[in-house]
């Protein structure tokens, strides 16, 4: 852990970032084809953050959301809660995986030009530290490692406001032309 960083300030900033995004969000849902037609992947993600497109229902279900995007990067933030616990009394690995998968996939999505899409071929998660409801917030930071015409790869870290690593993941995605029509 970096001792020069004020972790309370980081947590306050993360909370402010989330509040600003939530203030703009539409109700969760799935975008209609006419809403996304002609947009790049990055434009779609930016429109979601701006409140022009709905966030996906899974984010509401599992208490996480997109807080930032840039070309080749997507950052999601979540609050581990008791309702996410497994029988052993800590956050279920599926919660980690869903948050990381969202950051990975959306990082790849930001690199898609108009008319191109992707799907996950392979996804790997390494859980390195237990999460519980005492951890106020975590961020899944996804970054594209390779964006090719047929294959894209990305990596993501799940970190706390104090810099602790809770998990890391990687993905390989198939990139393809979207059907016209």
Question: What report would you give on this structure?
Answer:
Helix content is 30%, strand content 32%. It is built from 5 helices and 6 strands. It has helices at 7-24, 33-36, 41-50, 57-61, 93-109, and strands at residues 64-70, 73-78, 116-127, 138-147, 151-160, 165-177. A 6-stranded antiparallel β-sheet has the order 1-2-4-5-6-3, with helices on both faces. The longest helix is centred in the N-terminal third of the chain and has 18 residues, at 7-24. The N and C termini lie far apart (51 Å).
Question: Secondary-structure blueprint of this entry?
Answer:
Elements: H1 7-24, H2 33-36, H3 41-50, H4 57-61, E1 64-70, E2 73-78, H5 93-109, E3 116-127, E4 138-147, E5 151-160, E6 165-177
Antiparallel strand pairs: 1-2, 2-4, 3-6, 4-5, 5-6
Describe the structure concisely.
The chain is of the alpha+beta class and 181 residues long.
Any key phrases for this structure?
alpha+beta, 181 residues, globular, 6 strands, six-stranded antiparallel sheet, 32% strand
